[in-house]
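Good morning C.,

I know you're traveling, so I'll keep this short. The sequence:
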Amino acid sequence: MKKFIILIPVFNDWDSLIKLLENINKEIKDIPEAKFKCIIVNDASTLPIPAISAPKNIDNLKLINMKENKGHARCIAYGIRYALDQEKFDHLILMDGDGEDRPEEIKLLIKKAIQEDKISVVAKRIKRSEGFIFQTLYQAHKLLTLIFTGKNVNFGNYSCLTINDVKIISDKASLWSSFSGSLKKNIKKLNYINSIRGLRYFGPSKMSFLKLAIHSFSIIAVFKNIVFLRSIIMIIVTSYLIAKVGILVPIFQISLVGFNLIIYVISLRENQDALNNCHLNHKDTNTYTH
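The tokens, ready to paste straight into the viewer:
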């Protein structure tokens, strides 16, 4: 029987989390070949923690409370390292706690993971639920990432990782800044399921345009050396076009330099020492069983 841990970061979205746990419980009830535990990383929420219990089909639920708010990506990084250090499992499922990672798809992840148990599975976004402007910017982010890194990062946090892949990424500095970028860079083979980005259970989306930009640049920054090399090639190639294109060439080249400076600054979010010492932000743990 395969052992799965479901890892969910949360900040104040307690109503959404309760509903998500209920829906996960319904979806996993008919998977007899798997056992489930759940780890919730509370990113120093400012709202009171409600009454929480372990759903019937989840054997054990742990609520990890952090001392200081560090952000979504860093909650995931700590949760990954905590699970690896403290738990025994075969697969680790990551998902957001607001309903946008649809629990209806968790069975697809689990089924794929059991079928090919040596390969991690990610939820490839084939449809999103946000407005036209946001979706256009998201497509621009994917195109920009592909151009400058050569990688098609078409997934987010929603995934099911093998324990071997968890071990590989758990000590990478880039995990402190970007989960999906770290996974794409360090894990050469991934399986996919098609996924539709769901709607939040409660309240508006917390993904602003600024956060989308930081999210995009954080992924690209994982591949900063490739970005720098490709930018140099672009600058050299476009230099031969200056006679035909004129002032557009130096404008483009200056923009490339500016873009690389942004990527470098964002890459400073990757902090090996902070990752290694993230356990110091662990306040306490509440464990819930049946």
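Safe travels,
E.
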